[in-house]
Amino acid sequence: MYVRILGIFCLLTIISFSSFAEEGVNIKPRALGKDFKSFHSENEDKEFTTPQDYDEPTGVITLSQALALSLIRNPQLRAFSWEVRAREAQTLQAGLPPNPEISFELEDFGGTGSVEGFDGTETTILLSQLIPLGGKLSKKKKIENLNTDLAEWDYETVRLNVLTKTALYFLNVLASQERYTLELELVDLAERVHTTVSERAQAGEISPIQEKMSQVALSSTKIKLERIRRELEASKRILASTWNGLEPQYEAVIGNLYSISPVPSFEDLQALLLKNPEIARWSTEIEQREATIKFEQANAIPDPFVSGGYRHISERNDNAFVVGLSIPIPILNRNQGAISEARRRLKKAVEEQQNAEAVVNTALAGAFETLSASYEEVMLLEDIVLPEAESAYELIFEGYREGEFPLLNVLVAQKAVFDTKLQYIDALLSYHSSRANVERLIGTPLVDIENYSNNKSALRSSDKTGETK
Q: Distance from CA of residue 188 to its chain's centroid?
């Protein structure tokens, strides 16, 4: 009989705690970098092994290869992936009811008279259970589900940060390679100038002092070449660190630093700010704060402690059921402090959401201005300044060979050409870096906006053509 009672009690307990699982929001990756696979932890008992396709790269690598490596091997991203899994485990724990308690009592034994020995004992076996009311378990589980969603938003933020940081480091390597190539050209040019000056000095056409001046200029360019080479090696190490590479095994990167396109309007970019995970997460954050208020309100409802069991009275050899119920009386503590705290944290979240929108909007405005200025600088250098500097240098060098200009004019013109080329490379680097920062802020590749704008323009053009006909 006792076993039957125990079974019925357990069944009723299980039924009373049955509830539907709360499903979280499916956080979809932003459009930026969505085609690249990123690290997602699986089972804590299963050791993750990096696929062979993501081994340390050698030879020449592209931007796509660098991004793919970083999204799989970056330790910061992998750490955040485990945080998501930890939040999922918290959700599981939040949905579990409190364990039932079993107790055994033996009364009225070892005394005197009628209760001497064990003849007058009363043996009681009780099964007790705390019954949470007000939907506490489901409300707590919803909070933890939303916390998991927030962790996924944080993961998406880190993913975009890793993606952008890798792109910026890649651009630095690419620009350093261009500077090194340019400096090699400058060394070659300085050697040719020095050869010409030496020939004229030996022929007695110019003073030997000019030969020394050209030698000093040649030595300076070689020193600068070595400095740029060291900067290039340092930038390669920094890039490798994004995929947890201690020492770069690759030789160089390949990409087109000189490819640029017009900048979209600020209004088009601003319209996409809601795709930024740092803004998008706040709707989930506010929902979590609202769920916390409901949970704290449910905590104000006292939970009964129910017990039931079986008692055997040895003196009469009788059996009886035992039932108990205890309920806290909410007189002093009605959870009013926790409810008030949850409401104030909701108001705080609303203010923080507005602040996040303002911060991201300001960052976008700054990145847009830098991108626009860099684009204009690149176009000006490419179309006007650089061609004129090269043309001036050719004329001055030819004039020097004919004896029309002193060596100093040649050196000044030579420096002007290469300083302009360096400025051109720096402007290109600034353009592409600003472009990467803008894409990070809107969570969307700019090429998608450019393609959309081109299609829209083509559609308008087609409509006008149709009207003309």
A: 44
